[in-house]
Amino acid sequence: MQEQDQAYMAVALDMAKAAYGQTSPNPVVGAVVVNEGAIVGMGAHLKAGGPHAEVHALQMAGDRAKGATLYVTLEPCSHHGRTPPCAEAILAAGIARVVVASLDPNPLVGGRGIAMLRGAGCDVTTGVLEAEARRLNEVFFHYITAKKPFVTVKTASTLDGKIATRTGHSRWVTGESSRAQVHQLRRQHDAILVGVGTVLADDPALTARTGDGKELTGKQPIRIILDSTLRTPLDAQVVADGLAATWIYTTDRAPQEKRLALLKRGVDVIVVAGSDERQPDTHVSIEQVLTSLGSRGITSLLVEGGAAVNGAFLQARAIHKLISFLSLKLIGGSVAPAPFGGNGFALMDEAIALTDIEVTQIDASDLCITGYPVWE
Questions:
Q1: d(CA 74, CA 101)
Q2: What value does the CA radius of gyration of the chain take, rounded to a whole number of Å?
Q3: d(Cα 253, Cα 250) in Å, to the nearest integer?
Q4: Phi, psi for residue 290 in degrees, rounded to 5
Q5: Chain mean position to CA 145
Q6: What letter does residue 216 receive in the DSSP assignment?
Q7: Global pTM?
Q8: How far apart, in whole angstroms, are the C-alpha atoms of residue 340 and residue 287?
Q9: Nearest to residue 295, comparing CAs of 106, 152, 151, 147?
Q10: What pLDDT was estimated at residue 83?
Q11: pLDDT by residue (tens digit) across 155-176?
Q12: Which residues fall within 8 angstroms of residue 245, CB to CB, at 6 or more apart?
């Protein structure tokens, strides 16, 4: 039974993965209905406010759901939100057994869905492929407990650790395939963050695009700029193109007339405290920015900053995941910038280790290394 449960749960996880990044602020969830050894229903939660995965799977199964087993990657909800409780729908369909990968950390659920099913006589098994399910919903699990976004820092550097040449030229460090993956990453996040230095140097659009430069259909991530004195030009793409919302985090050092000019162009300007001694390079408190973003419903943040911004997030211990694209090139030069700036750590003993490392080859010239910082 254990191997069979894992096999069907793996199918449910694949269903959930297909909607990754499209359900915010909700988790991604997949469900599979199995009756007499055959899959009779499948479903995934596709967007916030839409039917949950269990409902899609039960609708597909129809009458064949009676007496069947339901595999679901996250505990079925038991409360009335935008949609009715899934636990009630499961019982009404006559499901005999429910296999759950992970419990829901949402206080509105938190074991109540399991209790409702068991209380009605349904056989419930939990913890099947739990680690995989929790990893898939790492953003949701973090946000629902911390009320701040899950932060992924993306870097692109050469084999000798350079993100640009000594003149600042950086197009392109990595190849086309790697850049295409970055655009998919953008699509999967609620927001993208850079510093004003990147805006001034590159005038980026910070949108999710296709290989031919067209914006991907659907929701675009919100563009977040750290700019302590509002140096962002009024004709910058992030201000003028209207392709996505732009929020600029600044300090009370910023001139009032520039704030008003940006507001007139539809930019949301948010004033937070200046940085402390741990964050000397951004001049905007990383902690206050994350708290503000969390209060505004941003569950996931992709940081694509330069050395200063990346270094500030490192010093603030505010990185939950690192995705590093490594180009098999050499630039050299003592003044060519590295991915992380700032003061850095004084001793090797203070260096931050990464765990759960994955290394994949993108094409003949690029690697992608993914890991999770281990904070004391």
A1: 6
A2: 23
A3: 8
A4: -65, -40
A5: 15
A6: P
A7: 0.90
A8: 18
A9: 147
A10: 67
A11: 999 998 898 888 888 878 898 8
A12: 222, 223, 266, 268
Name 162's Cβ contacts closer than 8 Å, sequence gap at least 6: 173, 331, 332, 333, 336, 337, 338
Query: Do residues 31 and 43 make contact, with C-beta atoms less than 8 angstroms apart?
Result: yes
Sign for the CA dihedral angle at 103, 141, 362, 209 comes to positive
In whole angstroms, give the CA distance from residue 371 to residue 146: 20
Residues lower than pLDDT 50 in the chain: 277-282
- In angstroms, the CA 226 to CA 217 distance is 27
In angstroms, rounded to a whole number, what is the distance separating the alpha carbons of residues 225 and 210?
Answer: 23
Helices 2-17 and 53-61: crossing angle, nearest 10°? Answer: 110
Q: What is the DSSP letter of 209?
A: B
Question: Helix (H, G, I), strand (E, B), or coil: what is residue 225?
Answer: strand
SS3 66: coil
Which residue shows structure tokens 């563009």? 223
Q: Could you give the C-alpha distances from 145 to 102, 106, 260, 270, in angstroms and in order? A: 15, 8, 36, 24
Cis peptide before 25 (omega within 30 of 0): yes
Dist CA 344 CA 346 (whole Å):
7
HSE-CB of 34 using CA atoms within 13 angstroms: 20
* Per-position DSSP letters for 12-62, written without gaps between them: HHHHHHTTTTSSTTSPP-EEEEEETTEEEEEEE--STTSPPHHHHHHHHHG
In this predicted structure, what is the pLDDT of residue 279?
44
Which of 36, 54, 130, 138 is flagged as catalytic? Answer: 54
In this prediction, residue 278 carries a pLDDT of 46
Separation of alpha carbons 252 and 304, rounded Å:
25
Distance CA 304, CA 284 (A): 16
Residue 375, preceding bond cis, omega within 30 degrees?
no
Determine contact, residues 149/290, Cβ cutoff 8 Å.
Answer: yes
DSSP 346: S
How confident is the model over 307-320, as pLDDT tens digits? 999 999 999 999 99
Active site residue 54: yes
